[in-house]
Every structure is written in C-alpha cells, then in structure tokens.
C-alpha cells in the first residue's frame, strides 16, 4: 500500500502531465515578463498602485484559499510575502481552470497584474496572467516545528529555512556579522588572503586531521586544521596585516560547540604583541556586538552579557585555583592532576601530560564559570607550541583566550619567531605524537626553514565564528548556526 507521501507525489505528477499536454513547460528556462521583488512592491505599493501599470512578481506558493470562482494566494519570493488574487473573470476561464487543476502549495509561479487594496486594506496583486516556474512534487511539511527527530531539521535544512523564519533570520544575521567583520578588518588596513585547504602537512593547531590522496601527484594530503602556518609565511614574505576567513577541518568529536568543519577568522599583525591584541579584540567584539544591541550587550542562556571594554582578566593557573581548587599548580605532579581529573569526571588518555590534563580540567570545570567576556592568560608552553615564551616565566607563553557565556571564542598569542626554540618544541610534539597523541603537531621542517630566514615580531589571533554566532543569537548548539552541519546519514 502506497504511503500518503507517495500518493501525493503521483497525484502531482499527473498535474505536471496536464501542464505538458497543454503545451506548458512545468520547468521553463525563463519568465516571459519582468518581475519585481515582493519587498519592493510592498514598500512602494501606493506609488505602483497610482501608476496603474501591470507588475510582475515570482515566488513560491505558501498558502492557497479558494472562494468559488476565485483564489487568494500568499507568494514568497525570498524577500517578502505578497497576497495574490486569481479571479476567473480577470485571468480568463481556461487559464483559471488550468491553474486550479495544476497548482499546489509549494509550486513556484510568476504572476502579472495590477495592484489593489482589499476591503480589509490588504496589499494585493490581481492576476491577469500566470506562468508555472517549477512544479513541486512533494508537499511542504505541516508539522515541521513539532518534529521528534530534531536532526531531520539539519539534514533537510532547506525545509527548515522555509518553514521557520527564526532559523532564516539567524543565518541572515550570521551573514551580516561576517560582512561587518570583513569591513572592520579592511578599514583597519588588513589584507584578506586565501591559503591552501589541501596541505602536505597539517599544522598550526593540536588536532587530528582528515587525510586524503591526490591521484595525479600520488601523494597523501591533509585538510587544513588551521590557517596559521601559511599566514605566517606571508609575514615572512613582507605583509604586515593579513587575515583569512574560511573553513578548517578537524577529525574530532561532535558536541554542542564542536563540528568537524567550522569557520574561523585568523589574523596576524607584525610589530605587535598579545597585550595590543587584547585592546584590539575588545573593540572588535564590541563593534560586532553592536549588531545585536547599541549598548553592546547580548542575552545568552538567560544571562545578559556585555561586550563593553574592559574585559575581565585571569591567568590560567588562577582560574584552576579559583574554580577547580587546584592550589600550587607548579608543585603538583602528573599523578596529582590525574586524581583531580578523575574526581571531576574528566576522560584522560595515557599519553597526556600534566599541562594537557590541566587544560581538560579547565575546559570542563573553569570555562563554564566565565559568563562575562574574560581574558584567560598565560597558558602553559606545552599546550601552545607555536607561541612565544614569557620572559618572566618560560613555562608559560604570552597568550590569552577570550571566554564568554562559558564558551571559548578567541585564542591569541605572541607568535614564536625563534627558529631554534620552535624546532625544539615541535620535536617534543612529534615525540608525543609517536607515543599515541593523534592531535600532536608535526615537525614541520619547511616552516622552521622559513623562520630561519626571519619572521618579524608579531601577534595573531583566531576567532571561532560559529561560536560567536551562537553567543550573539542565543543558540545552545553549533549545528543551529551552521547551514549544513556534519550529519550521519540515515
């Protein structure tokens, strides 16, 4: 027995055949008259009504209300909904009959006619002619908002956007945010660049890469896990301010703040340091937050968060002491940290160092405590092998994270430009990798050679744009702010 969906599809195919028999292409290659945006028509409705000219509009039928020899439709063209009136006496008996017999909610049509106000003062276009643009074969869902399988929304994002205006608005905001970010960086003298996605060595971050193979060259390649290394090549090459907005790929788990492919904005400034970057990022995030509210405040998880400068500051070790009650961190052994981690229910790997375990404790226990934007500074050197050591404490690096709403949104540091120190630290990373750490950074001899030609003093930062959109749109899952998140097929 055929399902209701299959039955509807067969019925609509018959309607498609009726159109074809009438000599009408159900999927034409062009519209025979000029169409305007529904938004433009509604905005200038009185002006267009006064001109008494015929106007055209095209879009998807979202609603259909029949009244004897007439039909009211709601048409949506991506900008606005416009009410359309089909009257048999105006459009013609045969054209009206064909429309009645073949049209459904979900179809794309083009209509042309004159504008008028209904008795209820509704802006309406009275149709004089119509054309089918794309016959839909499947019905739009009626109970999309009540789906028990929430992930179906992500698999069929096109329906999610169509049926839920809040979802569409969220992605329109994301687009505006990235546009604003570009404008701010360009105005500040940065140059936008593009670096390779396919790389012979995946470096620049501690993460497990995706591997692929290039047949013509017969070499293995990796999808980039960061844009850092190639952007530093550009500093060596003489550029002073560079940035890239793009996808990076990490073969990691999926949770509320992680997706295997995500978008970052990474930027570098020569002759600058992490303290200058703190002032820079305070202003940048404040300017972006102004897209949400003029006072630069947002609401996330029921809490008001202000992005007005100055942000709070705390060191990594102070955060461990205050929120995980780890005192005298430097005197603690790895075994001590293992015991503490187990108490907090942190999953550990046998190859993980004391500092790596501390980072995991911080992520689970401390980071959720920082609701207002906070700089977490002075990370252990072993966690960030590409960052410059602190002159005051060589075991730490000149670095910071920005955490807000309990989510890490920025990571930044003074860039290590000492090739000998860089080589030594990447050798240690490679040793950790040999012991089983699949996220350890590789020993990149080409990068070290480039550093030996000289890289200027510089500072850099990366912004997790998906997480920033989560914060600014009060969204608790990263899948909700990525148009097509990574999903396991049904």
Automatic annotation (TrEMBL):
Q: What is its EC number?
A: 6.1.1.6
**Cofactor detail note:** Binds 3 Mg(2+) ions per subunit.
Q: What class of enzyme is it?
A: ligase
Instruction: Name where it mostly resides.
Output: cytoplasm
Its UniProt entry gives the catalysed reaction(s) as: tRNA(Lys) + L-lysine + ATP = L-lysyl-tRNA(Lys) + AMP + diphosphate
The protein's GO terms of the molecular function aspect are: ATP binding; lysine-tRNA ligase activity; magnesium ion binding; tRNA binding
Alphabetically list the UniProt keywords: Aminoacyl-tRNA synthetase, ATP-binding, Cytoplasm, Ligase, Magnesium, Metal-binding, Nucleotide-binding, Protein biosynthesis
Q: Which cofactors must be present for this protein to function?
A: Mg(2+)
Q: How does it assemble?
A: Homodimer.
By sequence similarity, the record places it as follows: Belongs to the class-II aminoacyl-tRNA synthetase family.
Q: What is this protein called?
A: Lysine--tRNA ligase
